[in-house]
Every structure is written in structure tokens, then in C-alpha cells.
Q: What sequence folds into this?
């Protein structure tokens, strides 16, 4: 390889993805590995990145030990914490260049191809971010399932589970779905097991159940879905986009909630043009504004 | 010691207490030690119990190795899980008798002296329990801070913190307390640190702040306090007490919320007659009905 090569990584709490691209953004190799969140486990994050690197390099016929000409552009959960960002760079074996990026910013750049836009990501969690015409960006929510991430999968699951427990406590009126919802979240475990280790993925696993019940007209499920849409609409509005700006919705819940979001927002919404790894490539190759997060 | 001696333990997630009493319930010695929750750490729970035992025995002039004539009556967090109860009994060194008790039941018996009554415990968490005339008992809530414990300290703190984050996200109107509330919960840490490890004690630490603001007429804080009182009143009513039954309120939030609870409930409430260790003694000595939990 003679010209610039970009090794782009998208890191998350349970899974990481890597992609090797040439200077034009053409994919040379790609790989998937385990968790990569430098804020929760820096050594594990570095190990995942290096496993991705070795696989991509081998597949592309590149010597994995030769990293001098390579730019590592990594958008990862946990890199929003500056202390963790510095620790990751210090712990990572050397590359020609290492560009650590807030994962939300990499996704925003990927979604809009580096042009000013807004993006709401709604999966288990929820966050929104806007790229302004001057190249700065700001975010809304993403505070986590216990105190934020309003309208996301974990939030929906918690509302439904809370309500089912209120019914069990006889402080809410009977709800035909209460018992089956508790059975669904427990699976083969007991309620004690679930309550000893409640986590956002587990709570979000109730969301398909709630959305299906809303489709069938169940009033409690409809109320939860409406409130989730309210939250997501308020979050999108908090980005204060101009009419000419594009608003992207991404994440696993964007598809099932799409029609309700469009109706309530009263403006078109779009699917992201590309993913966070493409965003990292655009940033590393100078095709998008460098990350400058501001408070607005 | 010739007659029966009772070694009573009250175990919790951060602290355990032990009390040695004679057959008439007179205290011979008492001690405090670390965490005791057999469901989260059985070995640690046994270690705490044995540390309490050695100190109580020494203080009472009893050989700590002579446990044959001693009844260990332990009401502890985590003993509501039958698997953990069995594991604790198996792991604990032998006593003359070991009586493991649900901590909420020990508190209920202590509160009412073993007579039929209802009890709502409201501190960081919330749970309610009733002893019926036939000696059976049932509970309401206590589901934990992420999905239940409605109206407790962690619940109040989460509502306030959530609202402050909504203000920061510009999806809720300005609230003069938002910044100071976030600063209060963060202390010397950053928001990222708090969000990486949100725990119920931390959330509950906001409660005095919220209650003080409510006293001064802040409308958001008043709304949160009113909703907490609503939850606690609904929980107390879910015990379906007769007019002749006594309703006890215990825990750190019972005192500041007392006047609002009395007003909304429209019936008198009482302070517990005694604590959970006294409850354990009453149970072990046959002065109160043995634990029989039912679903109602």
C-alpha cells in the first residue's frame, strides 16, 4: 500500500466493528469483534481494536506489524470522556496517526455525509446531535437509561415493567398484559433475578411486546408509545434545525416509530446516508469538519 | 448462661447490627458491622454475622466458640430469596438454632409487636407489608429503584435529576434549581462519572434538596413531593387495613413526609413500637406468628 489507508473503528459496549479503506473510501476489509468502550474497560477496548486491525490487515494482504502509514480513526462509546480518550490513545500501540472521535459525532458525520444536519439515534438508548453550518456540533440527551434516554427501547420497557408491577401491587387497575409482560422479561429466571440485575438491554427486550400491543389498540401500550413519540419529537425540535436542514433518524426503533414521528413532527425525516465508520473515514480524510462540541 | 439466649441480627446492604438478648428480651450486648446481604455476597454476609457474634459474645462474657445454646435469628436483606436463604444457612457455622427471616417481616413484627398491623417503610427504597389476623403476611412494592420503590428517596432524586437533565436538554422550561441540583449530585465528580455509576444512594442524596425546595414553594419540587405522597398513600391503601388495625410508617423519609401522609390518608399513622431485631427476638421466642408470606 502506497497511498493513505484508513482503519476505521465503530466501538460499542457489546460489539465493535472495523473497516479498512483506501484514500477514496473504498472498503479493503472489514471485521467484527467484542466490546470497545475505553471508559468502562480501556484494556479490553485496545484488545478489541487490535484484534479488528489484525483481521482487516491480514484480509487485505497487509503486514499487521506495519502500521506507520495507517490512520486509526475510532468513533467509540466512552470517547466522549476526555480522560478516557487520552487513556485510550496512551494505551494503544502506535499507528501513523490515531484520531479518537466521539461515537455520536462519527455517526452524525456518516448520516449527513459531513453536511450540516440533525440526527436522532433511537435504539436501546436515545441521543440527538446537530452539525451547525460553522462546523461545530452539540448534543441532547444520551444520559443513560436510569435518568434519561427518553423514548428509547429501555425507557419503553421500563414504563411497561413499572406499570405491570403497579398492577401486581394493586395500585393500578387490572391490565390483561401485566402477567405476560412480567413472564416475558423474566424468561427462565425469577422476578428476584431480574430485579437483582436490571439492565437496559433487558428492559429494551420488552419493547417489541409493547409496540405490538399498541398496534392492537391496548390503551396502556398506546399511552407508552405516544409518550415515547412525544419525547423523540421534543428531542428532535431541541436541535432547532432550519427548514433546509435534513433530519435523520437512525437506530433499531426508528423504523417502527417512523410513521408516528413523521406525523407528529410535521416535517420529513431521512435515513442516514452512511454509518459511523464512514463518518470516521470522512473525518480522518479531511472531508468533514473536525469535532468541535459546544454547549447550546 | 443457662436459659435461652437469642442472637438477633438485622442485615442490610451497607451495614449490619447484632443484639444478644436473654429469654425476656433484655439486651446483653450489641454490635455493628459491615454489609450483610446473602443474596449479593453470601460469604461476606456470614463474615459480618460472625464478627457481630464474636463481639456480642465477648461483651456479654460468653465463650464465642460455645454456640450450642444460642438461637441465631437473622432478618436480612436478600433472605427473601429462598435460594439465598438456604445458601446462608448452609454456609453459616452451627448455632443451637438458625432462624432466617425476611427482613421486611422482622421489621413488621418489630413495628407492631407481633400484632396484626400494616407497615410502610420509606427510606432510599420503599416497601409495605401487612400481618393479617390469621398470621399470614403479604407485601407491596420493594421492587428496587430502577422499576419500583415509588415515592422513596431514590425515586424522588431520580425525578428531580431527570427534570434537571430535561431542562439542560431544552425540552423542559427553565428551572432555577436545575444547575444547582446537578452540581449537588455531582459534588467533586463530573456528570459523566455520575452517569457511569448511578446508584440509589446517590439519587436519594438529592431528596433533602428537593424537600427543602418544596417547603419554599418551588413548583417543580412541590410536584415531585406531591407525587411521592400519592404513591405512598396508594401503597398504604393497597394493604387494605381495617379501621382497627394500626398503620406504621418507618424509615428516614417517614418523618419529613409525616404531615402530608396523615392529611392525604385521612387516618392516623404510628411510629414503630420497636425495630427489626426486636421483631427477630419475638419470632425466635415464639411471641409472634412464624413467617408465612402469601400473595394477595
A:
Amino acid at each position: 500500500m502506497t497511498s493513505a489507508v484508513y482503519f476505521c473503528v465503530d466501538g460499542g459496549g457489546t460489539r465493535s466493528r472495523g473497516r479498512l479503506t483506501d484514500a477514496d473510501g473504498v472498503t479493503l476489509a472489514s471485521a467484527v469483534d467484542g466490546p470497545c468502550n475505553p471508559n468502562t474497560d480501556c484494556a479490553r477496548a485496545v484488545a478489541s481494536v487490535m484484534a479488528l486491525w489484525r483481521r482487516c490487515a491480514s484480509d487485505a494482504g497487509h503486514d499487521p506489524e506495519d502500521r506507520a502509514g495507517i490512520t486509526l480513526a475510532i468513533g467509540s462509546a466512552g470517547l466522549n470522556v476526555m480522560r478516557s480518550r487520552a487513556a485510550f490513545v496512551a494505551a494503544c500501540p502506535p499507528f501513523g496517526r490515531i484520531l479518537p472521535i466521539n461515537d455520536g459525532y462519527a455517526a452524525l458525520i456518516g448520516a449527513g455525509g459531513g453536511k450540516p444536519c440533525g440526527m436522532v439515534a433511537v435504539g436501546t438508548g436515545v441521543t440527538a446531535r446537530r452539525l451547525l453550518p460553522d462546523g461545530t456540533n452539540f448534543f441532547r440527551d444520551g444520559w443513560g437509561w436510569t435518568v434519561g434516554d427518553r423514548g428509547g427501547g429501555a425507557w419503553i420497557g421500563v414504563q411497561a415493567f413499572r406499570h405491570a408491577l403497579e398492577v401486581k401491587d394493586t395500585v393500578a387497575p387490572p391490565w390483561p398484559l401485566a402477567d405476560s409482560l412480567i413472564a416475558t422479561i423474566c424468561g427462565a429466571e425469577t422476578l428476584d433475578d431480574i430485579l437483582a440485575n436490571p439492565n437496559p438491554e433487558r428492559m429494551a427486550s420488552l419493547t417489541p411486546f409493547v409496540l405490538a400491543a399498541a398496534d392492537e389498540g391496548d390503551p396502556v401500550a398506546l399511552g407508552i408509545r405516544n409518550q415515547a413519540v412525544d419525547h423523540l419529537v421534543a428531542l428532535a425540535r431541541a436541535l432547532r434545525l432550519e427548514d433546509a436542514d435534513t433530519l435523520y433518524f437512525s437506530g433499531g426503533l426508528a423504523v417502527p416509530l417512523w410513521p408516528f414521528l413523521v406525523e407528529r413532527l410535521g416535517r420529513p425525516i431521512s435515513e442516514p446516508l452512511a454509518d459511523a465508520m464512514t463518518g470516521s473515514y470522512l473525518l480522518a480524510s479531511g472531508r468533514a469538519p473536525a469535532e468541535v462540541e459546544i454547549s447550546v
